[in-house]
Specification:
90 residues, single chain, mainly alpha, elongated
């Protein structure tokens, strides 16, 4: 069975940025620290760039709904493994 495109992009993103995602997990013990927020911002930028690459070819009118679903599934995978990306300041 083939791996869906969004999973391939996710796995590649994690592999290339392993140190950054590991640091996010490590710093998540103190979610309100400036250090955590800085790492979180960097991680979100990486995720958004990957999402843009993933969806760039499907965003024309013919495949717009497919692109939205693809992005949603990609983010679900990210959030399942790194819920810290959505942590907002209290």
């Amino acid at each position: 069975m083939t791996t869906p495109k969004f999973e391939k992009q996710y796995n590649e993103m994690i592999e290339i940025n392993k140190n950054l995602f590991d640091e996010l997990k490590e710093k998540s013990s103190n979610l309100n620290s400036e250090e955590f927020r800085e790492i979180q911002r960097k991680v979100v930028r990486v995720i958004r760039r990957t999402e843009d690459r993933l969806c760039s070819k499907t965003e024309n009118a013919k495949f717009a709904s497919f692109s939205t679903n693809l992005a949603d599934r990609f983010w679900e995978l990210v959030r399942a493994n790194y819920p810290e990306v959505d942590h907002a300041e209290s």
